Amino acid sequence: MPRKSQRRKRSINTRSGLSAFLRRPAVQFGIVAMIALIVILIALAGSGSSTAIQASEINVEQAYQLYEQGAFVLDIRTQEEWDEYRAPNTTLIPLDQLQGRVSELPKDEQIVVICRSGNRSQEGRDILLAAGLNAISVSGGLKEWSAQGYPIEGTRP
Asked: Is the pTM of this model over 0.85?
């Protein structure tokens, strides 16, 4: 009868179950191939989204450049704020109406979302992005726009 130490060696040297399965070359190749496939899929997903990702917020100077190039500028302030002052040739859709009026906006061009100080424009931008539109918000809003001397209709803030 073999000694206990010999029995232990035999049981350690005997490969069975999961250990034996994982030692098969075909299984090892399959694991490596699966890991490679996952890495490739992650790389492809990352590269695809990196081209689609743009800045979600721009400063007033950048907004004015887009404005001069004919960008669609959406003012999401209230009607009362709009009546006081606004950037010329912009469109008003108050933030509280935006969700229901998304269909009025261009689907094939970038929308520059602006408000008084830049806070509401982020919320408006997010509504438009969720609707599948290409939108960007303006930090500083129309207060900063006016402070920079860009065109304003109405009484300057």
From this structure: no
